[in-house]
């Protein structure tokens, strides 16, 4: 059983509290290696799939939707998807990366090449999208919306790019996204730059997008940069709100079918 501390959803008022339903557990893993976090994802995915009721069972609004993990990857790691030619977007050899204290691993998520490390808030969402009434495009747009709202909580205007998944600030990517679905249960998720060393992104072509820069809350806000804990708190609330809304809509649809 996972003994990591759970994060309580922070709801700002009674109206919000009444409208939100806790469909997921938020768990803070702290600083953790990519390999250990991936193993936790896989084990959780198996549990969420196993907890799904039989197809013939009536819909239950009490059914949990899964688990969300907050973490930072330490040591830093470059993850490379299985997309053809993704490896060419890693600009240094595995040995050269290791000399800089950076791991390089293949990943089964979507997307291309991404860096993860200290100062970047990674969120892995192991969610039963059937329970939430979501499909891939709607799920990704929901995650983008959640991040945009979270950035707005700190006075930063985030935007979507119709040609590239993720969230952008003045043309620079601040949040990368990559997911994997198996039996309609998600893995992986989002990586939000809070205060990482942005020079680390010079090791790669981020997300395989040539000529597109990256940014962070620290770059945008300087001395007003929130702490990682403050970003976790805001993101927890925004995720909980979005998932509650999706869960309620799915419950209405399930009960009427």
Strand order of the largest sheet: 1-2-6-10-9-8-7
Count the beta strands.
Answer: 10
Average predicted confidence as pLDDT = 88
Radius of gyration: 18 Å
Shape: globular
Beta-strand content bin:
25-35%
Distance between the termini: 36 Å
Order of helices and strands: HEHEEHEEEHHEEEEHH
Unreliable runs: 8-18
Which class best fits the helix and strand makeup? alpha+beta
Helix segment tally: 7
Q: What is the count of structural domains?
A: 1
Task: Tell me the major beta sheet.
Answer: 7 strands, mixed
Describe the structure in brief.
The chain has 257 residues and is of the alpha+beta class. Helix content is 33%, strand content 26%. It has one domain (24-52, 61-256): BirA Bifunctional Protein, domain 2 (2-Layer Sandwich).
Helices and strands, with pairings:
Elements lengths: L13 H6 L4 E9 L1 H18 L14 E8 L3 E4 L13 H6 L3 E4 L6 E4 L3 E8 L1 H4 L3 H18 L5 E3 L2 E6 L2 E11 L2 E9 L23 H5 L6 H29 L1
Parallel strand pairs: 1-2, 3-4
Antiparallel strand pairs: 2-6, 3-5, 6-10, 7-8, 8-9, 9-10
Helix pairs in contact: 5-7
Keywords:
257 residues, alpha+beta, BirA Bifunctional Protein, domain 2, seven-stranded mixed β-sheet, three-stranded mixed β-sheet, 7 helices, 26% strand, globular
